[in-house]
């Protein structure tokens, strides 16, 4: 069995959409619509964005009622206050990140959660790249129909007297959730508050908690049944 | 029209902002009860099948833009208003548990997909 130690392929299967993306990209480069260097630069720009500006937007809103009003009325303008211009890096935005940001405010009676059943629309300019699970057919198909079951798989139980409101982001609006400020954060600074507003809280699959920060160290869980020698 | 016409139009404004003022007056307002039409969609649509025929309430009148069914073919001359519509989950999924009867779902439509209910 000589081929027993052959390395496994890095990717077992390339989807039709990946093939399509490569084909269209190569055609566009050949036609001179953009260069390979443009494409690389754009990908690098897109990957450099994370969820911190959105966390800042939420923290600021918790502290400043005027800013909160702006965030809820005009997410595009409010984004500028946290350093994000949706028109970057091209001057007209990015091809699928349209510039109409809607901030969904959680209240004691309504909990929002965001999905795109058609593809994976996501407020990337202010929240960075979407997590892998957000793009899976599993999440996209099930969240609209069985939202409470899916949320409970994330460890989030919403009481039955709270309305769960699913936002299916299917057009040009982009959505993020403004969670409620948790108890135990009285007198906290904007910096402290921003630390507990994690990406998942702004998608609606988690709630912020004063003891849980985005950059917390992961606990080490020892295996229950360790394999000897490993 | 040049290949870059869309980028040129949206430069300095953004999309959908660049279509502001180009659609006829909106037919619906916040609070209106609407039904989702079941139009043919042979080539391209962004109107989910699970909403066809369902009734809901206009939650937000969002912006003007060409409908995706047109824009997919670069037909951008007739923008229309868009609406976020709120449905009761029970209206969309008959088996949705009664105990969660307050749960809702919102999604967005261009005007052509809506009729008064
Ligand atoms: Fe999408």
| The level-1 CATH class of the domain at 49-203 in chain A | Alpha Beta
The helix-strand sequence of chain A is: HHHHHEEHHHEEHH
What is the overall silhouette of chain B?
Answer: elongated
By helix and strand content of chain A, what is the structural category?
Answer: alpha/beta
Task: Return residue spans of chain A where pLDDT drops below 50 for at least 5 consecutive residues.
Answer: none
Class computed from helices, strands and strand pairing of chain B: alpha+beta
How would you characterize this protein structure?
The complex is a heterodimer of chains A (230) and B (117). Helix content of chain A is 38%, strand content 10%. Chain A contains ten helices and four strands; from the N terminus they run αααααββαααββαα. In chain A, the strands form two sheets. Chain A has a two-stranded parallel sheet. Chain A has a two-stranded parallel sheet with strand order 2-3. The mean pLDDT of chain A is 91. With 117 residues, chain B is of the alpha+beta class. Chain B has a single domain (5-116), classed as SH3 type barrels, CATH 2.30.30.50. Chain B has a five-stranded antiparallel β-sheet. The longest helix of chain B has 6 residues, at 5-10. The A-B interface holds A 33, 76, 86-87, 90-93, 98-100, 102, 117-118, 144-145, 147-148, 160-173 and B 3, 7, 10-18, 46-48, 50, 60, 62-63, 65, 68, 82, 84, 86, 89, 92-93, 96, 99-100, 102-110. Fe (ii) ion (FE2) is lined by residues 116, 118-121 of chain A.
């Amino acid at each position: 069995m000589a081929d027993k130690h052959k390395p496994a392929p890095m990717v077992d299967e390339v989807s039709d959409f990946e093939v399509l993306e490569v084909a269209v990209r190569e055609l566009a480069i050949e036609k001179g619509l953009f260069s390979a260097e443009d494409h690389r630069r754009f990908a690098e720009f897109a990957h450099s964005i994370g969820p911190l500006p959105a966390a800042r937007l939420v923290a600021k809103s918790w502290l400043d009622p005027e800013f909160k009003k702006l965030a809820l009325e005009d997410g595009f303008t409010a984004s500028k206050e946290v350093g994000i211009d949706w028109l970057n890096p091209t001057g007209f935005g990015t091809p699928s990140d349209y510039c109409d940001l809607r901030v969904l405010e959680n209240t004691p009676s309504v909990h929002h959660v965001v999905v795109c059943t058609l593809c994976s629309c996501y407020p990337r300019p202010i929240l960075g790249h979407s997590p892998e699970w957000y793009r899976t057919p599993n999440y996209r198909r099930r969240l609209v129909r069985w939202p409470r079951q899916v949320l409970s798989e994330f460890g989030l139980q919403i009481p039955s007297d709270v309305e769960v409101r699913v936002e299916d982001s299917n057009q040009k609006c982009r959505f993020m959730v403004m969670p409620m400020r948790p108890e135990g954060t009285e007198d906290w600074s904007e910096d402290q508050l921003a630390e507990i507003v994690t990406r998942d809280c702004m998608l609606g699959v988690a709630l912020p908690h004063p003891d849980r920060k985005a950059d917390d160290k992961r606990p080490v869980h020892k295996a229950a049944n360790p394999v000897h020698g490993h | 029209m040049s290949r870059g016409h869309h980028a040129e139009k949206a430069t300095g404004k953004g999309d959908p902002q660049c279509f502001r003022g180009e659609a006829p007056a909106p037919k619906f307002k916040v609070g209106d009860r609407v039904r989702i039409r079941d139009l043919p969609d042979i080539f391209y649509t962004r109107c989910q099948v699970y909403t066809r025929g369902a009734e809901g309430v206009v939650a937000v009148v969002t912006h003007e833009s060409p409908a995706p069914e047109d824009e997919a073919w670069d037909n951008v001359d007739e923008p229309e208003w868009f609406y976020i519509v709120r449905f009761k989950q029970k209206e969309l999924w008959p088996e949705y548990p009664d105990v969660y009867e307050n749960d809702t779902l919102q999604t967005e439509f261009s005007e052509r997909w809506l009729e008064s209910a």
